[in-house]
Amino acid sequence: MSIDIRPRSIWAPYAATTTTGGLLIARKAWADFHGDYEKATKELIDEVGASPGRSSREWSPWKGGVFIHHRGGGSAGLDTEEECAKDVADAWSDMYGKADEDIGYNYFVCPHGKIYEGRGLERGEANGGDAPAQGNVPAGHVWVADHGAVGRNTAFYSICGLLRSEDESTSAMRTSIRNLIEYLRTDVPAGKKAGPNMFPHSKGYATECPGNLLPYAKTGSLMDPGVPDTSNPAQLQIISRAQWGARPPRSEAKVPLSQRTAFAVHYSAGPTSQTPRAIQNYHMDSNGWWDIGYNFLVDAHGRIFEGRGWANEGAHASGYNTTHFGVCFIGRDGDATTAAKNSIRSLYHAAREKTGKALAATYHGALNSTQCPGAALRAWVQNGLPGTTYPIVGGEPVYEGDPPGDGSSGGLTTVRSIASQQRAVNGLGHSPPLTVDGVFGPLTDAGVRWLQNKVGAQADGLWGPLTEAAYVAYTGQGGSGGGLSTIRSIASQQHAVNALGYSPPLDVDGDFGPRTDAGVRWLQGRIGVEADGLWGTTTEAAYVAHTGGSPGHMGGGLTTVRSVGSQQHAVNGLGHTPPLDVDGVFGPLTDAGVRWLQSKVGTEADGLWGPATEVAYGRYADGERLVVDGQFGPGTIAATQRAIGVTADGAWGPESKRALQQHLNTWADAGLIVDGDVGQATVKALQGHLNKMIRADLTVDGDWGTATTKALQTALNQGRL
């Protein structure tokens, strides 16, 4: 359906007049523009008005739907559309420090029926991720049919009406909310479609929100457009790794399409509720592989998930990983639905189209000695994969980013943001100039490749450290255009150079000019690394070793994924004691806090918040959040039941015990008799599995005591059972 959504650029100018905007402008003016408030204001407006940035945390709104909100107490008094845009900017200011330094809501709808973009189709953070646990529903979750407990922010859009508790909703507002929900359920990419549920913010959360929208904020109300028929889709879209919350791969191994000869069907042999991330965790943590083993996965609803993608070697059938695409159905024998089979068939035909050859259709058991994919799928493959073929879009072979509907890649943002890449391309004279909108589409991809050719780097469209170094060498620029700031900000590098006694001291102004370049090279020579002026991981490691990480020499951190302030917020949000001061300064307390968080979420505790830490944090924050107390009570039991695919009722009965044994047989190759008797053999298998998955260091003695339960709770919190 056609719908008019006003972009962020409409309300972004008013962000500069808010309290948060004023603070950010002052900080930018002195850190980046030598006190020029006009330039700082323009940059803030450009940043706020750019297209919403992607979250690295799981985003699966098809499991949930939408939450409805209002703006709080009092009366809004919004008589003009300008006042409405200002109110959206005020919401940005209010939520900036609590919502990953952005606005928390996905969309706003004003009394005049105008729709304003917030986070848009990207994950928001406004639905009460800190909601308390209720019964068998963990903290930050809500119960829905079909999927059970799902994350309030992980699985739901947030739509905020621009009214307050003393205001009545208008017919124009309600109609536009209805139209917006219909749009989110029907006209967006498959992985971002809204599910069938509509809840008020107050569901499971102590708030009066959404005020006078409450009577309409429920499934089946006049504001609910109904659930569309999806039995005959026009096309299928691959859900990217970014959308399902994949961990970064440890490596990759490219395979040319010309080498492919066949297409192999698998099953996971687990419950249909299993997630791609759970399968990836097992493959990486237990098997020690560099990524999830399959090229693609398909669930019972027919949704297609990107695994290693079209261009990478799989790890799904010994001896056939470079010749065969591996596609896994998530479920057990007999669980595959018509929708799932149609999606697998469609992937097969897409593979034939990509390779330009007639690929053999086969199954795992025909290649290796295994029952996979079960009798039902085996017979289906042998009969020629009968069903309906749909066109497929998305899923290009790029790990970083979120492929849009046209199939173009997502770009790489670990060194420079997309907007910064666009500015750099324009700065070298690309014609026509790129629109600096933060969106990595085909034109930006072509522009980055053009720049890479110009500066002498590999033209792959991915702006990594080598492209950055080549660009810096070509332009001779620093500061906002030069140096390397993926590990430390320019100002932090200047602090570090001065701390080692450089004379005369550098001005700590965040500008990477000739003097800062010379100072960094001096420091590199002193600590024994190549003096190239680029502060990368080798320089950082040598600097920390040289200084011993003493408080006088701290101040670095890694800010390519989250700012220091956002890291401090995250550390405090997980209960660090005492709480960190959220001051944006990476000192010894923040370093210790980040390391504490990394240990808690199950990643390397190096104090550097990179992509692996971000994914692990998202997994933990959106997960069970059990108290690790060694008590196998209803909460821990319900979490275990969710992980092994049975009804999460908090009662540890025979069905749950059999499911645990089946789970250990599938994922730990335990060879247990599935009889519901959790004796020593089952406990030993569990202990061994926990040792592999989370390095629990348990004694494998068959005694299910406090230590085993604590390890189980930790694994459940990290999504690694």
Automatic annotation (TrEMBL):
Belongs to the N-acetylmuramoyl-L-alanine amidase 2 family. GO terms for biological process: peptidoglycan catabolic process. Gene3D superfamilies: Peptidoglycan recognition protein-like, PGBD-like superfamily/PGBD. Coiled coil: none annotated. SMART domains: Ami_2 (SM00644), PGRP (SM00701). GO terms for molecular function: N-acetylmuramoyl-L-alanine amidase activity; zinc ion binding. This is N-acetylmuramoyl-L-alanine amidase. Residues 236-373 form the Peptidoglycan recognition protein family domain. Residues 250-384 form the N-acetylmuramoyl-L-alanine amidase domain.
